[in-house]
Design goal:
Helices cover about 30% and strands about 25% of the residues. The protein contains eight helices and 15 strands. With about 325 residues, the chain is an alpha+beta fold. A hairpin with a 4-residue loop joins strand 9 and strand 10. Helix 1 runs antiparallel to helix 2. It starts with 6 loop residues before the first helix and ends with a helix. The structure holds 2,5-anhydro-1,6-di-O-phosphono-D-glucitol and manganese (II) ion (2 copies). One manganese (II) ion binds next to strand 5.
């Protein structure tokens, strides 16, 4: 681990390489870094304090909100608003987008943030890794006016930054501003993230496939055939099945080791389960920046023009040769 480069220093040093460099994106990333530390602190106490369990509310997707979902949502929203850099937020836990007028009520923010504050929340109660996912765009409507729906409904190819935090055996923040992917590990004793994984590259192929096979009978035939291909005794197969149920953690492992993550459309979820704007898009940008691929089966995720903030999408992502192979089955 490079104990000489903290995330804070890295953000500042790389600011000038960023095409719109004005220091504002850096400030926003630093806000997300701070919220990540607060959520990490709370996640680490799960089991000790009263933070495990349901919050008694159901979010717009019809899912039970967990106390930690609500905590993470509040911390990230607060931290973003405080930076005075963003004009709007979309969150998995908020039905509508949040409009931020700014401390001087002048709507000066240039950026919108879209996030899944706590990914894999069904894993909290049992001490299994969870995550946070974020996506950042420049707004398309004029600065100085209230944020509009169209500012959020941009294709993922226009993201200026994307990343995730994985609250795992150790806590890591991994992000890209379109110039490669870098990973930072939190030293909990000091409270700083250090550059631990510089310029991450996904292996072109791997031997891990990650999918909820409990849904097998509901999958499209092409996906079933690909799963059979993964399991076949041939060349470097069968692949290993690895599925945590926290996409951030599943993707993180596959990015480092080589593999494919799949959440197909199925008869139960005709558009798949994962949300395009704050799950698929940011992970797809990271995958591509690390040399991998992300697809809905027939189209590049980052080319999809969204129509709704909470829309779902089938998602296949990881090592490029594995995603190509999967697509050849569909
Ligand atoms: P969230 O906790 O934000 O609702 O997301 C959970 C997602 C994703 O992280 C995970 O891979 C997938 O849902 C798991 O779904 P299944 O339990 O259907 O496999
Ligand atoms: Mn999620
Ligand atoms: Mn979530």
């Amino acid at each position: 681990m490079n104990e000489h480069m903290t995330l804070g220093e890295f953000i500042i040093e790389n600011q000038s390489a960023f095409q719109y460099s004005s220091g504002e994106l850096s400030k926003l990333l630093n806000g997300l870094r701070l919220a990540a530390k607060m959520v990490n602190h709370e996640v680490n106490k799960a089991g000790l304090v009263d933070i495990i369990g349901g919050a008694g509310e159901v979010n717009v997707q019809g899912e039970d909100q967990q106390l930690l979902d609500v905590f993470a949502n509040d911390k990230f929203i607060h931290s973003i608003i405080k930076r005075d850099i963003a004009c709007g937020i979309v969150s998995e836990e908020e039905d509508e987008f949040i409009s931020i007028a700014g401390s001087d009520k002048a709507n000066k923010g240039k950026y919108v943030v879209l996030m899944d504050p706590l990914d894999g929340s069904s894993n909290i109660d049992v001490n299994v890794s969870v995550g946070t996912i974020f996506s950042i765009f420049r707004r398309v409507t004029p600065v100085g006016t209230p944020v509009q729906l169209e500012d959020f409904l941009q294709p993922g190819s226009l993201q200026v930054a994307a990343g995730y935090v994985v609250y795992g055996t150790s806590t890591m923040l991994v992000y890209t501003t379109g110039d490669g992917v870098n990973g930072f590990t939190l030293n909990p004793a000091i409270g700083s993230f250090y550059l631990s994984h510089a310029n991450i590259q996904i292996p072109k192929t791997g031997n891990i496939y990650s999918v909820n096979e409990g849904n097998y009978s509901h999958f499209p035939q092409g996906v079933k055939d690909y799963i059979k291909y993964c399991q076949k005794e041939e060349e470097n197969r069968p692949y290993s099945a690895r599925y945590i149920g926290s996409m951030v953690s599943d993707f993180h492992r596959n990015m480092l080791k080589g593999g494919i993550y799949m959440y197909p459309n199925c008869t139960k979820n005709i558009d798949g389960k994962l949300r395009l704007l704050y799950e698929a898009n940011p992970i797809a940008m990271l995958a591509e920046q690390a040399g991998g691929k992300a697809s809905n089966g027939v189209q590049r995720i980052l080319d999809i023009k969204p129509t709704e903030i909470h829309q779902r999408v089938p998602f296949f992502c990881g090592s490029s040769e594995m995603v190509d192979k999967l697509e050849s089955f569909l």
